[in-house]
């Protein structure tokens, strides 16, 4: 049995999440393809799910990119002051 370090476990977990989300998107888009008859309401629900799942997938990809940047030492933070305009 191969022992994985924390970074490898996190990477595998992220890859598993990406695959799960992508499979969901693909399955839902199959349901929306021409020739699959469903009600407009059901299609709308599927489209909403595809949209929210795609946003989730994009956020996972961004998180993985950030982690890789942190790992490589290229991640920089910037602190800005913001005026809340209270009062």
Q: What would the keywords be for this entry?
A:
single chain; 87 residues; mainly alpha; 69% helix
Secondary-structure topology with pairs:
Layout: H1 6-32, H2 40-72
Helix vs. strand class: mainly alpha
How helical, in percent, are the residues? 55-70%
* Strand residue content: under 5%
Low-confidence stretches: none
State the shape. Answer: flat
Count of domains: 1
Order of helical and strand elements: HH
Q: What is the makeup of the main sheet?
A: none
Count of β-strands: 0
> Rg, please?
20 Å
Overall pLDDT level:
76
Compute the separation of the termini in Å: 62 Å
Number of helices: 2
Describe the structure.
- The mean pLDDT is 76.
- It is flat and about 50 Å long.
- With 87 residues, it is an all-alpha fold.
- The chain has one domain.
- The chain has two helices and no strands.
């Amino acid at each position: 049995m191969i022992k994985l370090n924390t970074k490898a476990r996190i990477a595998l977990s992220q890859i598993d999440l990406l695959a799960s989300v992508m499979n969901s998107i693909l399955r839902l888009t199959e349901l929306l393809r021409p020739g699959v008859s469903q009600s407009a309401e059901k299609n709308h629900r599927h489209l909403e799910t595809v949209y929210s799942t795609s946003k989730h997938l994009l956020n996972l990809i961004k998180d993985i990119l950030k982690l890789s940047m942190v790992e490589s030492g290229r991640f920089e933070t910037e602190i800005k002051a913001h005026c809340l305009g209270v009062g």
